[in-house]
Amino acid sequence: MWIDSHCHLDSFADISAVLQQASVQGVRCFLSIAVGIENFQSVLPLSLKFPQVCATAGVHPCYIKKHQLAGLKEWLTECAQNPKVVGLGETGLDLGPSSPDLGEQINFFQVHVDVAVMTGLPLIVHIRDAWEPFLKIARGWKGKGPKGVLHCFTGSLDVAQEMIDLGWKVSFSGIVTFKKTEALQQVVQALPLGSFVVETDAPWLAPVPFRGKENCPAYLLYTAQKISELKEVSQDVLAKSTTQAFFDLFPKTKPYFDEFCISQ
Ligand SMILES: [Zn+2]
Ligand SMILES: [Zn+2]
User: How far is the CA of 7 from the centre of ligand 1 (A)?
Assistant: First the structure.
């Protein structure tokens, strides 16, 4: 049984079909990630309709311009009370060419951090070309910070290790199947089972052999196949370790996802 720890299910027209197609491949549970307040209104109903789907609430760093800082803390705190909202994000820092001002991004990120600490919910963190400012913030927590997952991880082994030591997980996506990602593949090889989860980030980032096409949760298997080769473990062992790592970080999902875990 696999859990897709990060997908955007609201992007799909026929969600029942997407879930069914994934289930046939053993991908049975899904964390559907919100990227903004309006988007959350599409994500939450899916988690209420499908028991195998849980939701997150947050404002993606690339969408902060459409949002206001005022009221964000209250909104996140209220969302966190919902039994099917199991994490906060995606939030983070993104230094892409057309990304918003870093200072503004940090302000939004900090609100997510504060609510995560207050509610005990984990963060879903997106970092693009911004490891330095992110680590500067994380090092300031001194053991009193939130827990979370570094999604679509593409950083160094040192960064992964430092965050894992703080109780965080990293999440590997279809990027590990791409050519010229030897450095990332070495990170996969070096990290112990239990320290990472897997994700598709569907509809984005389809793994080889579908690179460039629309991704879907069923394709998690291609990423899993690559990781099991890199780690020289069976898919079964990898599935169990990533599922356990997911439950360690997202205990709120357990009452919903447990029934899908019984049959492998
Ligand atoms: Zn992301
Ligand atoms: Zn995402």
Answer: 9
